[in-house]
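[09:14] KT: can someone run the structure on this one? pasting the chain below
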Amino acid sequence: MSSTTIYHYHPHHRTQQKLEHETHPIKVSDQLPHGGGLSRFNSWFAVKVTNGVGTMWCAYAFAILAFVSLPSAIKSHSPVVLVSWISQTFLQLVLLSVIIVGQNVLAAASDKRSEATYNDADAVLHEAVKIQEHLAAQDEVLGRLIADAAGR
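[09:31] RB: done, structure tokens below
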């Protein structure tokens, strides 16, 4: 830039940080502990169990398991036992897996939106930097034109 630059660009600290370091959208794996072995194992195990229970196949297996005890609930002729079977056995077993599956679907959609937003923001940042470069080049040309006009 020439000494006749009329504007001095000072990037925002987040912009400067982004330009200096390669960044990426935050992923679930970034949130897992990186410390001691026990905390890493606990997180790994929790993710494995959640991924296993959070399938429709698990929901179907839980439904079959729940239906095994349905005949005895019906034979009891007690509305309390039947309501108990519905709420404590069927709903808790089956809905647990179905809810996890639904949460996984919603989380995947949210991750896609987040990644698209991140990519859009990254593109806007790079476009803004190019605009700043363009304006600096124009400042330089204008400065020379002004200097030439003043020298006549």
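[09:33] KT: thanks! The radius of gyration is 31 Å.
[09:34] RB: yep, looked fine to me
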